[in-house]
């Protein structure tokens, strides 16, 4: 861990599913003594709440009407990131197929995005040493003044192989189709879609190991910190 008297640094890491955002962001934050925020977990948490409360996911106005109800709390220690909804630990339930298949629809609703964006900005500004925030619209919308913006990419084949390795028994073809479908939905929504910010550094991770990606991002953050 190193943070010393360094000024807080804000790092935005965006990209499609399975490009390595969470693994990279957590490791970079831990190595540099920064906080870490998984914004996908927040969208999953509000989706979990909608599903658990019987809200019709196909009705954006029904989702919008209750978007302010659940209290979502994210813990930002990279060694132990946590997520609760109304005091319940939902770290496990938000990773189910049921939530994954519905999160794009819920996160496309503008009232949901406004609510979650406010939480994200508040956590980013209160991080004493700085923070690595990962998601889909961090560099474009949530933190447009971030010190460093990274956009991770990887081929659909590499991403599907990584995910299939994670989900024991999942076949690569259906995993590839599912992630392409989710990326298409996330990229085509009207409100703050998945997109690379004009001033983001693009890192193609297809042929890189995870340690190589982490090293590349740590170097970029250190350069920014030295220049502050
Ligand atoms: N460069 C890499 N080489 C090999 N495997 C990797 C690499 N980067 C990440 N992985 C692995 O790929 C899987 C997906 O990574 P991760 O969850 O970090 O991606 P993500 O972009 O956060 O995905 P999502 O947006 O769906 O949450 C994990 O099992 C991770 O260990
Ligand atoms: N900044 C963000 C982060 C996430 N989402 C939505 C879209 C994703 O499909 C979903 C789950 O994210 P993951 O856990 O796979 O990173 O959440 C978003 O709209 N904006």
Automatic annotation (TrEMBL):
Q: Where is the Cytidylate kinase domain?
A: 11-222
**Cellular localisation:** Cytoplasm
Tell me its EC number(s), please: 2.7.4.25
Q: Binding of ATP: at which residues?
A: 15-23
Bias category Basic and acidic residues: which stretches? Answer: 178-189
Q: What GO molecular function terms would the record report?
A: ATP binding; dCMP kinase activity
Domain of life, source organism: Bacteria
Keyword Secreted annotated: no
Tell me which UniProt keywords the record has, alphabetically: ATP-binding, Cytoplasm, Kinase, Nucleotide-binding, Transferase
Q: Name one GO cellular component term.
A: cytosol
Q: Where is this region: Disordered?
A: 178-200
Instruction: Give one Pfam family.
Output: Cytidylate_kin
**Reactions catalysed:** CMP + ATP = CDP + ADP; dCMP + ATP = dCDP + ADP
The record's Gene3D superfamilies line, in alphabetical order, gives:
P-loop containing nucleotide triphosphate hydrolases
Please list the GO biological process terms of this entry.
nucleobase-containing small molecule interconversion; pyrimidine nucleotide metabolic process
Signal sequence: where?
none
- Enumerate the InterPro entries for this protein: Cytidylate_kin (IPR003136), Cytidylate_kinase_dom (IPR011994), P-loop_NTPase (IPR027417)
Q: Which family does it belong to?
A: Belongs to the cytidylate kinase family. Type 1 subfamily.
> Which protein is depicted?
Cytidylate kinase
Organism (species): Streptomyces ferrugineus
């Amino acid at each position: 861990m190193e943070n010393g008297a360094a000024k807080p640094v804000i790092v935005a890491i965006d990209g499609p599913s399975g490009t390595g955002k969470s693994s990279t962001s957590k490791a970079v934050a831990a190595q540099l003594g920064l906080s870490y925020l998984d914004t996908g977990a927040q969208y999953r948490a509000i989706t979990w709440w909608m599903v658990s409360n019987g809200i019709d996911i196909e009705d954006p106005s029904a989702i919008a009407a209750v978007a302010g109800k659940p209290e979502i709390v994210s813990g930002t220690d990279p060694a132990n990131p946590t997520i609760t909804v109304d005091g319940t630990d939902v770290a496990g339930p938000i990773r189910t197929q049921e939530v994954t298949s519905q999160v794009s629809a819920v996160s496309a609703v503008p009232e949901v995005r406004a609510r979650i964006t406010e939480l994200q900005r508040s956590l980013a500004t209160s991080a004493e040493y700085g923070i690595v925030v990962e998601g889909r619209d961090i560099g474009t919308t949530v933190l447009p003044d971030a010190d460093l913006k990274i956009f991770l990419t990887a081929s659909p084949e590499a991403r599907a192989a990584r995910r299939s390795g994670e989900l024991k028994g999942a076949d690569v073809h259906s995993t590839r189709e599912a992630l392409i479908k989710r990326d298409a939905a996330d990229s085509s929504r009207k409100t703050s879609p998945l997109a690379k910010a004009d001033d983001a550094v693009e890192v193609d991770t297809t042929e890189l190991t995870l340690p190589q990606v982490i090293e590349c991002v740590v170097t970029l953050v250190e350069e920014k910190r030295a220049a502050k």
